[in-house]
Automatic annotation (TrEMBL), chain A:
This is Xanthine dehydrogenase family protein subunit M. Residues 1-169 form the FAD-binding PCMH-type domain. PROSITE patterns: FAD_PCMH. GO terms for molecular function: FAD binding; oxidoreductase activity. Pfam families: CO_deh_flav_C, FAD_binding_5. SUPFAM superfamilies: CO dehydrogenase flavoprotein C-terminal domain-like, FAD-binding/transporter-associated domain-like.
Automatic annotation (TrEMBL), chain B:
One of its GO terms (molecular function) is oxidoreductase activity. SMART domains: Ald_Xan_dh_C (SM01008). InterPro entries: 2Fe-2S-bd, 2Fe-2S-bd_dom_sf, 2Fe-2S_ferredoxin-like_sf, 2Fe-2S_ferredoxin-type, 2Fe2S_fd_BS, Ald_Oxase/Xan_DH_a/b, Ald_Oxase/Xan_DH_a/b_sf, Ald_Oxase/xanthine_DH-like. PROSITE patterns: 2FE2S_FER_1 (PS00197), 2FE2S_FER_2 (PS51085). Keywords: 2Fe-2S, Iron, Iron-sulfur, Metal-binding, Oxidoreductase. Residues 6-82 form the 2Fe-2S ferredoxin-type domain. This is Aldehyde oxidase. It comes from the Bacteria. PANTHER family: XANTHINE DEHYDROGENASE, XANTHINE DEHYDROGENASE SUBUNIT D-RELATED. Signal peptide: none annotated. It comes from Mesorhizobium waimense. Gene3D superfamilies: 3.10.20.30, [2Fe-2S]-binding domain, Aldehyde oxidase/xanthine dehydrogenase, a/b hammerhead, Aldehyde oxidase/xanthine dehydrogenase, molybdopterin binding domain.
Amino acid sequence: MIRYAKPTTVDEALALLGEDSWRILAGGTDFYPAQGSKPFRDNVLEINGLAALRGIVETDSHWLVGARTTWTDLIRHPLPSAFNALKQAAREVGSVQIQNVASIAGNLCNASPAADGVPGLLVLDAEVELRSAQATRHLPLQEFILGNRRTALLPGELVTAIRIPKPAATGTSAFVKLGARRYLVISIAMVAARVVVENGVVSEAAIAVGSCSAVAKRLAGVEAALRAQPANHALAAAVQSAPMDELSPIGDVRGSAEYRQDAAREIVARAVLGTIDHSAGGKVAA
Amino acid sequence: MSIERADIAFEVNGAAISVNVPPLRRLSSVLRDELRLTGTKVGCDAGDCGACTVLVDGEPVCACLMSAASAAGAAITTVEGLANGKLSALQASFLEHGAAQCGICTPGLLVAATALLEKNPFPTEVETQDALGGVLCRCTGYRKIVAAVMDASRHVESLNRRMPQSGHAVGASPIRLDGLPKVTGGEKFGGDSFPADALAVLVVRSPHYHARFAFGDLDSWARARPGVAGVFTAADIPGKNCFGVIGPFADQPALAEGFARFRGEAVALVAGERETILDLDLSDFPVSWTELPHVLEPREAQADGVELVHQHRPANLLTSGFVERGDPDAALSGAVVTVSGAIDTSYVEHAYIEPEAGYAYMDGDTLVVVACTQAPYMDRDDTAKVLGLAVDKVRIVPTATGGGFGSKLDVSLQPLIGLVAMKTGRPAALAYTRNESMISTTKRHPAEMQATIGADADGYVTGMVFAGDFNTGAYASWGPTVANRVPVHASGPYATPNYRAEGRAIHTNGPISGAFRGFGVPQATIMQETLYDELAGKLGIDRLDFRLKNCLRNGSETVTGQKLDSGVGIAECLEALQPHWTRALADTELFNAGSSTKKRGVGVASCWYGCGNTSLPNPSTIKVGISSQGEIVLHQGAVDIGQGSNTVITQICADALGLPLEKFRLKSADTAITPDAGKTSASRQTFVTGKAAERAGRALREAILRFANVSERAAIALDGANLTIREGEATRRVELSTLQADADGLVFVAEETYDPPTLPLDAKGQGKPYAVYGYGAQIAELEVDLKLGTVKLIKITAAHDVGKAINPLLVEGQIEGGIAQGIGMALMEEYIPGRTENLHDYLIPTIGDVPSIETILIEVPDPEGPFGAKGLGEHVLIPTAPAILNAIRHAAGVLVTKVPATPSRIRAAIRDKEARQ
């Protein structure tokens, strides 16, 4: 017999994780497609009984998003406008049916290069809270997702929360997704941009692009090029001439590498403009 | 190895229930298999189609992605829980709008829309689309779904079936006669009625495009697995292990013998108890593979020295079709203007939301196969052949079919489950997984086409040359039909006095290409219609005017030399589009003057399409009678795969008979009880079976009139179990119960057959291939984002000459659905074996991808068709893709020569153009 467990407390879950090797089941929206029609041969730890891991709370220093918080939970929770990109992305994670059960942490643990949730969290300087029976550690999101389907999760560990430091939850953000159809589509490329404007000038910019490298990337060159610029439509020109060396797109059924590189720059510009002019941002899809 | 079962309690549709299942069993499976709530459908098991949408504590979720354990304590609502004794307003609205065609996606849509309407009774179009974006529909084109949801809260009356009065059925739009179970969840599709004691069947398939294989010790493997009832291979097949839709080309084994010619080919079956099969790991199945060189492209397949896919088909050529008229070379060299081009298209997957499913059992010495299909008699004949049975020892009972579009014409699982039932004596059930459906069943042929068209100084087309290679994949299927249909149709509905066209079906180790709505004509039309735009441009003639100038008229001769005396409606279609064309061009010009990154464009394209088999017999037989209880019993053998034949054939029969539609009771296309009405294919059912139904209705009427000894002017009526016949002042009343009934309980009965009059094509493709043609033309308006290469469709205006719209609402539904498939073909659908074998990598249009559609019905009666009707099922998608490509070129100045025109390809074309400037 293989094992199945559905603990109701985090401590119980961590104890189980410490004693055996398990696949974690949360929303199931990546778990079941990966399983297909194959029989189960791994121990499965279902964490849907862990009520403590669902919900969003504000502390003095952070916004804490419980690992089981669904995309719908996030959409419905009042949050500062720095979270706009993440909320817009939430509406593009699969369908409403997916958003109602899929967890935010699951999107990170699945570590798909096309995970719509990642850029919006990267621009918020998100950290991942990892707990085991022995310890708790916090890793910046960039250090948690290591590659296509690879994370820094250690045996015995569970992602318990995503932490947004308050200083990063400032300004306004926007998300732009590029796909070949309107709904339920894997992104060809997607961008989150967060911009803080003080006295008409960009004081801080955070830009992240997904689906154009094995792991979504922050664009340091673009961010630098935007800082200290007047917050107007000329920002698009700053994006067009900025270095974007972080991206290494591949060609696949959704588009050529050249197309991705080209389109990514365009949607970065649109996302940046979207932060200062709401009519310019939002979703782009065919 | 399995996980221990657990008791799990939750609420379903208000009732508390408890099940004992493995906790990771998908909720969809628990609902369907344990609770027999089969209204919740399984289309992909991956959250890609939304057919399994249920409400969990009021929120829509995909039941295929939820563990049974996760549902513990929750309140689940399925489609069966929406009705509450009488239809909900939403369900009634769906029926009245014609929002359900085949009905397989309907439960998921209804459930998702119910959640929306709970929160927002009067949603906008965008809110409706946002809520339903996760449910795919392949039939309707979504427009009627959006309308049905937006109107649902205004629906106050009980269901209005819109039953027409006696004698007025043709031209009326009653709701579909088979509609009710489609909105209640009661409809039984291929996978919805498996017997509880049926053996489950798994198919072992080739993971390679071309490979030799050998089995190890199958018996020991099976014996070591309790619950496995048997393993079956080609060696177990008692008949001729070779099937195919076109007898002389039949070449496909039901189970491969020694080597596999394509990825996904079936090589063995494992049958066992359901729980055993669910937990069976096939990774150690004793088969060894030796990969062999393979070819996937026609160009490679025709190279010198390439290994042949079939030894008896030199150069991997399955067959070719040819049409020649006049002197095309001289005409082109003498033309004032010529244009040439090349277009490639991709494999297109049918992507019906219902994967193939069915079960088989032995009834005495007769094998009964209960499965979804488009062609019950062809299934019967091929299944009998493979299993070594006489055709009268195989009975095909079609279930409701959740979309077909051509692919469910070929047998798929019928011989496989039939073999297991025969060998084990137990019922055998199988529902293909989405992946299995995609890798093993047929596709639309990828085409590589070139053409040249010339015109004279007055703007008349003088000649055309066309050549197309069609990748027909590993087996023949309908490849010969595509090779023959394309040359007949590649001129489009335009007078082309000098013409040569060749279509070739080339074998590769790719997926089998077969029938898909249009049999190659949609591909060829892209070639011709994009060149027509170039010709018009070179001639300086408006693109629509150019088409009107050249279109076929009554009295024209086609490229096969067929004189069309009457019923040619293409000019009427194009003329009906003229005001829309003028308006669209003006709108576009205005928009483009103020926009630089986004540019709008307008495109137009036409279609014609011959209804029925090409120069081959394709009869339909209809039997209709009156029972002693006063019911009109129609043996309606034209399989309804969503297009509406159950309703349309009955409407025709009702008016021919002169009795009201509501008195009809339909018998299904079960081969044991209903005569052969042919396959649901080639846009033939309304025309061919409709004509048989018209004749049968008239014959039944004549029998009644003769019995009553009255003239043909008499009116008949049914009043309970009495038949009333009135002529002038005289009234005669016939008590049906006093008449002698036949074995079927019928007191009057008629059976009539119709086979369209065609003539063979000669060596130059000259002859009369079809008795009836249908016509149409569409305008596409769209916006191209020049920086991203994305396309936003704004509107499609479609004018189709259907001869006579037997049911205008169903006609609109066909048009909208065909357009949606044309949109997919134009912009996103590209099946790549090994890479897009699921519904998230293979994209079909969602509810947000189909723009507003304005339908203009043109009725130029055909002298041959029933009540003047022509076919339309395939016509409707043919103009869409070329109209879109022409509109993209109008907007962006680039023609994309590889379809689909994805953002990546459009942007590359724009970049190339910019580099040239």
